[in-house]
Structure formats: C-alpha cells, structure tokens
C-alpha cells in the first residue's frame, strides 16, 4: 500500500444521492410522531390501575371471609361416610353386583 495517499485529491463530492425533499420528509415525519406521543389527540384510558384496584379489593374480600369464617359451615363427612351414602342410594341389584365384584377381587383377597 502506498503511503503517499492524498485526501485532497479526492475532493468533496458526495458519492450518494437522495431524492429531492427526502430529508425534509423525514423531519416532518419525526415531528409528527413526537407531537402524537407528547400530546395525543385523545386521552388514552389506562385500565391497569382500575384492574389493580379491583383485584386488590377482591383479594381483600376473600381474605376477610377466610379470616372471620363468614362462610356457612357445611356438614363435614369423612370419605367412608360419603361412600356409605352413595352405596345406599344405589339399587339393590347394583349393590349386589358391587358386593360380588368386591368379594372376587384378586388384589384385595391375596
């Protein structure tokens, strides 16, 4: 490479061209975008705050119900009582079938 390169010989001409008014259009578009962001034509409603407040109120209500046990108490049954109730609601034929299947079960009668 030669070290005698002279930048002054190149000149000051631009190697690229742009259409007429290109930079002016860019400037106009940028200013319109900035104007829309800074001062929008319609105020946008933010529902995030509304959802946060209502969600907090619902969570607080549920917490209060659980803490003060305001829900009515139900009759608590054991699994065996639930099984007995379901078994006695079956017809006698279904009860007999289940009883015979239970007696013939290989895994229970080992």
TrEMBL record:
Domain of life: Bacteria
Membrane-spanning residues: 49-71
Keywords: Membrane, Transmembrane, Transmembrane helix
Protein's name in the database: Anti-sigma factor
Species this chain originates from: Bacteroides difficilis
